[in-house]
Amino acid sequence: MSKEFYFVIVGRNDQPLYEIEFPISDKNRKRDDNRHLNQFIAHAALDVIDEHSLINNQMYLKFFCSLIIQALWVVDKFNEWFVSAFVTASRIRFVMLHTAKNDEGIRLFFQEMYETYIKLSMNPFYAADSPIQSTSFDQKATLYGRNNV
User: Fold this and answer.
1) Better pLDDT: 53 or 147
2) Which among 7, 41, 108, 136 could disulfide-bond with 148, CB atoms 3.0 to 4.6 Å apart, if both were Cys?
3) Around 101, how many Cα atoms within 13 Å sit in the side-chain half-sphere?
4) In angstroms, rounded to a whole number, what is the distance separating the alpha carbons of residues 9 and 18?
């Protein structure tokens, strides 16, 4: 089983600000199909993340999400995804879907991405809760993804 990771930053109003998948490859067709599934799973986990962030004062949260999927490209396949989340003090949620456990690597990835997000948010030209379209942010996310997950 190959390791797959999907990372998304979700804003205060549940809108995606940034998303990336690991490993980065040239399989565009499969990635497009999986991206919709990953977005669905990440969005479905937001309620659980919000509940746990209100109860728990930690920023790093771990969950297990199991879904049965029926779709046109895969008939009756059972996908098991681990959902890890990092909630900032300003309620920005970092959500990672992954098929293999790598707790320490994901925690390090969240820390590096949080520092990168703070630096981006301090930029006077970045509007809060707007989609992130920075090439340097994308390069750093790719680098941290290769190093940690």
Assistant:
1) 147
2) 108
3) 4
4) 5
